[in-house]
Amino acid sequence: MSRLSHLDARGQAHMVDVGDKAETSRMAIAEGCVVMQPQTLAIVRDGDAKKGDVLGTARLAGIMAAKRTHELIPLCHPLLISKVAVDLVLDEALPGVRVRAEVKMKGQTGVEMEALTAVSVACLTVYDMVKAADRAMRIEGIRLVHKSGGKSGSFDAGDSAAETA
Fold first, then answer.
1. Is residue 8 flagged as an active site residue?
2. What's the whole-number mean pLDDT along residues 12-23?
3. Who contacts 63 (Cβ-Cβ below 8 Å, separation ≥6)?
4. Which of 27, 62, 110, 130 stands 20 to 30 A from 70 (CA)?
5. Predicted structure pTM score
6. pLDDT of 74-129, one tens digit each?
7. Which phi and psi angles does 113 have, rounded to 5°?
8. C-alpha span between 152 and 54 (Å, rounded)
9. C-alpha to C-alpha distance for 98 and 142, rounded to whole angstroms
10. What is the distance between the alpha carbons of residues 10 and 123, in angstroms, rounded to a whole number?
């Protein structure tokens, strides 16, 4: 296992100095889902949530969260993100909502945490918007499915919905 870059020689957490790293195009895709009762999914699908547009609100929340990741996760760098796309898809087979986020930028550090944060907050927002109808919903499967750019190159989870999206 490689040494963790956020730990110094004494094992203490510190912010990584990316000043000497090359600027490259960076991209990350993350995914997750909110599993709910079929009746709750119908509320989302039909636009009947008392709090309003569930998918639209969750999409905006995910985008905003990606842009503020450095304020939420210690040691994350503030980034000049060029793109955040959050897609929410109703899945009757789940039943629930599948969430996918893609984040892009050109810079000296990756955007994996921004993509993961976007998915997490979008899922939490879906939960919040319809929790009155279904408190037993589950947020599941939040993970990085693809990243590219930087010294470590590309990563593909290999079995994700991102491959078919």
1. no
2. 70
3. 84, 86, 118
4. 130
5. 0.88
6. 889 899 999 999 999 999 999 999 999 999 999 988 899 999 999 999 999 999 99
7. -65, -35
8. 37
9. 10
10. 37
Task: With residue 118 as reference, give the H or E element that holds it.
Answer: helix 112-130
Confirm if 25 and 154 have CB atoms less than 8 A apart: no
Residues 6+ apart with CB under 8 A from 158: none
Mean pLDDT of 2-23: 67
Beta strands in 61-128 (DSSP E): 83-91, 96-107
Q: What's the chain's average pLDDT? A: 90
Q: List for the chain the helix, strand, coil content (%; round to 5).
A: 30, 30, 40
In degrees, rounded to 5, the angle at the alpha carbon of residue 104 between the alpha carbons of residues 76 and 86 is: 95
Catalytic residue among 20, 87, 91, 128: 128
Helix (H, G, I), strand (E, B) or coil at 4: coil
